[in-house]
Every structure is written in C-alpha cells, then in structure tokens.
Amino acid sequence: MKESHAVVSARGARRWQTGHPWIFRSDIVKPPAAPPGAVLTRDQQGRALGWALWSPASEISLRLLDRDPDAVIDGRWWHAQLQSAIARRLPLAGLTDSCRLVHGEGDGLPSLVVDRFDRWLVAQFLSAGVEAFREEIVEALHALTGAEGALARNDVSVRTREGLERTVEPLWGEVPQEVEVNEHGVRYFAAPHTGQKTGAFLDQRENRVLVGSVARGRALDVFSYHGSFALHLAQRAETVTAVDSSGPALARASENAVLNGRQNITLVEADAFDFLRAREAEGARYDTIVLDPPAFAKNKASLEGAVRGYKDINFRAMRLLAPGGLLYTASCSYHLSKTRFLDMLQDAAADSGRRMVLRAITGQPLDHPEVMTVPETGYLKGALLEASD
C-alpha cells in the first residue's frame, strides 16, 4: 500500500522552518488520503518535513508534531512528550497543587490542553488530529500522573470548526463538581465541570502572588469572578471590595472568602464600567486596584472597540488611586498585542492627569509557556503601575 502523505507549498514549508507549527488549508498542495491523525508531510520537491496532526475540516490543516520523518507517532511517542511537558512543571511543586500540565503549542503538543487540579485532571482535545490520539494520550496521562480521575472539557467552539462534537465527559474515574485548590497558601474552589476555561484561571497565579505581596490599605478588585485576586489582596490590605456582574460568581467568591477565613472582603454585584464611573463621581480613593477583565477583543474586528473599553476602565482606575496607590491591570485578549496594551495604558495615563510609574510588566507563568515564534501561545499581559503624585 502506497504511503499517504501531505504535500505543502513553499510558503507552508517556510512556516515550519521559521518555528511556527501551523500550515493552513490554503498551503496544502496535495491533501493526504487519510482520516484525522498523524501524517508525514513533504514539500513540493519531495523532501520530508516531518509529522503533523491532520485535521481535514479545519482551516489549520496541519500542526507540526515531530520534525523527524522516521518518528513513529504512537503511544510511546505521546508518553515521552507528555513526560517532558510534565517535568517542566517540577519547579511549581510545593507552591501549588494545581497547574497547567500541557499548554498546547507552547509544549510542542498542538491543540492539547491538560490542567491539573489537585488529584484530578481536565483535558481539552481541540483538533480532529489530536482527538484521533485520545486513547494513547489518556493512557499516558493516567500512567504519568496517577490522577484519581480525569474529565474532557470538550465544550469549546473551536471543536465545531474541526468537525467535532462539543461534550463534557469523563476520561477515567470521577471528577468532583468542586475541587479545592491551594495556591501559594491561598485556597479556592475550582469548578472543573462548569467553570471558565477548565475550571479556574490558573494563568494569573503568579500575578496574584505579586499583587498580594504589595497590596495595602483600601483595595478594589474589579472583574473579580471567584475572588482569586481578592483573596491575595486580603492578606495585606485592610479592606477589599470585589466587584463582578455575575451573582453566581460572587457566591463562589463568598465561599472562597469563608474557606480562607477572610472577613475583610466585601462583594458587590455590579457592572464594572458603571461601578468605576460612580466611584469616580463620588471622589472615592483606593490604595490598591486590580483590573482583570475578560477578553474584550474576541477577534481582530472587535479590537478597536476593545481598546476603547480597556482605556476607559484603566482611566477610571487611575483617577481612583490614592497618592502612591498601585494599579495592577491585565488583558487576556490575544488580539491586543503587548505593544498596543502599553500604548493604551500610556493614553489612559495621559488623559487621567496622573503621573503613573511603570513598576513591572507581567506575562504568563511557567506552566503557560509562550514560544517566541508562536505568538498564539501568548495572550496574557499585565502591568503594575504606581500613582506617584
């Protein structure tokens, strides 16, 4: 039987050569006569470029797995690659019991996400190509982690574009509806079955620790969700006001405050924009403010409106800072670049009339690696600012 392989254009081959793992449908010269899975990829001169995940229905048709044309993409291959990814997280041992074990393209395992919450795993198979290896991946994860249970959170929209069903289903064992997470001594409940992402926002872990270490006085946490930032702020601040528009999210935040014995957190259900405008009109002042909004820019088309939204909330927050006050502000919008993010903060500072000093620029933690040649692996950016006037 003749080997089935993919042939790609010079432009497609060049993407792999310059460090990006994706080849788009428009650069497929000859698609492989094969179902989703792993296929050998060649250039138009017949040179083997390596093995890729093949997704026939996707705009991202090929995702690089291994540059070695002699590699065998089987259970042993997945075990070895997953073992390497998990080993990169060893420095987090003792600091937290929950982290991202696999960050897709950031770990050279495209379209696969695996998060650990204490003794349980939550995985996402985000392409038809990686879905074809579910059995091998699950077997390797079970052997490598010894987790009591694992859940597939395959309820994300990207699977529809891959021609896959959107489901939430067990992979092995039972995963509780709530899992208590310990993060640098702060505890909170994650919701693996229903929570945002895979159950909690693990990517802000180190930034929460940073802000908690400098918090003081009267603190404000806007877009607080389950109160993860508020819990860290409450360790040093006298009072913390946590604001979110979701009643259920604040109910979980209340549970988390009780879990940590924190009685200095006040929860407010309100629209963030309205709340900030009202507090500014009152002449309120805060010593520490956190802005951690959801992604305002879901796509390129929404970027300009998103920038206006980001500028508005940051302008208001700057005006609310007491002299010497600190503002930690973040964006998880991939389409908002780091440069544009900092430009937005510069414009907000100029309009606020405050002298804002840049204390730190932050990004993603160890377990969410951002590969320089794969910008899609990096989305989170933040800044710690001080009102020096």
Structural topology:
Elements: E1 5-8, H1 10-17, E2 22-24, E3 28-30, E4 37-42, E5 48-54, E6 60-66, H2 75-87, E7 98-103, E8 112-117, E9 120-125, H3 128-131, H4 134-145, E10 149-154, H5 158-161, E11 167-172, E12 179-183, E13 186-190, H6 205-214, E14 218-222, H7 228-233, E15 239-244, H8 247-259, E16 265-269, H9 272-282, E17 286-291, H10 303-320, E18 321-331, H11 338-352, E19 356-362, E20 381-387
Parallel strand pairs: 1-4, 9-10, 14-15, 14-17, 15-16, 17-18
Antiparallel strand pairs: 1-3, 2-6, 4-5, 5-6, 7-8, 8-9, 10-11, 12-13, 18-20, 19-20
CATH architecture of the largest domain: 3-Layer(aba) Sandwich
Quaternary structure: single chain
Query: Strands across the major sheet, in which order?
Result: 16-15-14-17-18-20-19
Mean pLDDT, nearest integer?
96
Radius of gyration: 23 Å
Shape summary: globular
Which stretches are poorly predicted, pLDDT < 50 over at least 5 residues? none
What structural class should be given to the helix and strand makeup? alpha/beta
| Name of the level-1 CATH class of the largest domain | Alpha Beta
User: What is the CATH fold-level name of the largest domain?
Assistant: Rossmann fold
Helix content: 25-40%
The major β-sheet equals: 7 strands, mixed
Strand content: 25-35%
Q: How many distinct helices? A: 11
Total domain units: 3
- Tell me the number of strands: 20
User: Considering the protein shown, what is the CATH homologous superfamily of the largest domain?
Assistant: Vaccinia Virus protein VP39
General description of the model:
This protein has 389 residues and is of the alpha/beta class. The chain folds into three domains: 5-66, Roll (Archaeosine Trna-guanine Transglycosylase, Chain: A, domain 4), CATH 2.30.130; 75-179, Transcription Regulator spoIIAA, CATH 3.30.750.80; 201-387, Vaccinia Virus protein VP39 (Rossmann fold), CATH 3.40.50.150. It has eleven helices and 20 strands. It has helices at 10-17, 75-87, 128-131, 134-145, 158-161, 205-214, 228-233, 247-259, 272-282, 303-320, 338-352, and strands at 5-8, 22-24, 28-30, 37-42, 48-54, 60-66, 98-103, 112-117, 120-125, 149-154, 167-172, 179-183, 186-190, 218-222, 239-244, 265-269, 286-291, 321-331, 356-362, 381-387. A seven-stranded mixed sheet has the order 16-15-14-17-18-20-19, sandwiched between helices. A six-stranded mixed sheet has the order 2-6-5-4-1-3. Strands 7-8-9-10-11 form a five-stranded mixed sheet. Helix 2 crosses helix 4 (134-145), helix 9 packs parallel to helix 10 and helix 10 (303-320) packs across helix 11 (338-352). The longest helix is centred in the C-terminal third of the chain and has 18 residues, at 303-320. The model has no long low-confidence stretch (mean pLDDT 96).
